[in-house]
Automatic annotation (TrEMBL):
<keyword id="KW-0378">Hydrolase</keyword>
<dbReference type="InterPro" id="IPR050563">
    <property type="entry name" value="4-hydroxybenzoyl-CoA_TE"/>
</dbReference>
<dbReference type="InterPro" id="IPR006683">
    <property type="entry name" value="Thioestr_dom"/>
</dbReference>
<dbReference type="InterPro" id="IPR029069">
    <property type="entry name" value="HotDog_dom_sf"/>
</dbReference>
<feature type="domain" description="Thioesterase">
    <location>
        <begin position="18"/>
        <end position="99"/>
    </location>
</feature>
<protein>
    <submittedName>
        <fullName>Tol-pal system-associated acyl-CoA thioesterase</fullName>
    </submittedName>
</protein>
<dbReference type="Pfam" id="PF03061">
    <property type="entry name" value="4HBT"/>
</dbReference>
<dbReference type="InterPro" id="IPR006684">
    <property type="entry name" value="YbgC/YbaW"/>
</dbReference>
<dbReference type="GO" id="GO:0047617">
    <property type="term" value="F:fatty acyl-CoA hydrolase activity"/>
</dbReference>
<dbReference type="InterPro" id="IPR014166">
    <property type="entry name" value="Tol-Pal_acyl-CoA_thioesterase"/>
</dbReference>
<comment type="similarity">
    <text>Belongs to the 4-hydroxybenzoyl-CoA thioesterase family.</text>
</comment>
């Protein structure tokens, strides 16, 4: 199932040429993943407090296809690819209307607060799959 979230491009998101600064695409997809998890009913603060588990980006493979500009309304799409006990892979895209501007494959690691590999509870894996 694909999760969708809209985001508007603000002046602070752009560079001198008026296009979205490349690193801000990563911020937009981070927000998309956060909202995807939230809409599944997973409270990340509670997960950390009760189990000590957190999500950390391990790898991002990104393609910048077409620039977004100031005041564009973009849609961030997040689609789970693989959900395991210690690793989650998602495909993400940023669109303006139907035009794909950016794509990424993101690998997330499940970590304990000490930074060691953790194991995602089965009920959360089921929600994400």
């Amino acid at each position: 199932m694909t999760h969708r979230m809209d985001v508007r491009v603000y002046y602070e998101d752009t560079d001198l040429a008026g296009i979205v600064y490349y690193a801000n695409y990563l911020r937009f997809i981070e927000r998309g993943r956060t909202e995807w998890v939230r809409e599944l009913g997973v409270d990340q603060s509670k997960l950390k407090r009760e189990t000590g588990l957190v999500f950390a980006v391990r790898r991002v493979e990104a393609d910048y296809l077409t620039p977004a500009r100031f005041d564009d309304v973009l849609t961030v799409e997040t689609r789970p690819i693989r959900v395991g006990g210690a690793k989650i892979e998602v495909d993400q895209a940023i669109l303006r209307g139907k035009k794909v501007l950016f794509t990424a494959r993101v690998t997330l690691a499940v970590l304990t607060e000490s930074g060691r590999a953790g194991r995602l509870p089965a009920e959360i894996r089921q929600l994400m799959a």
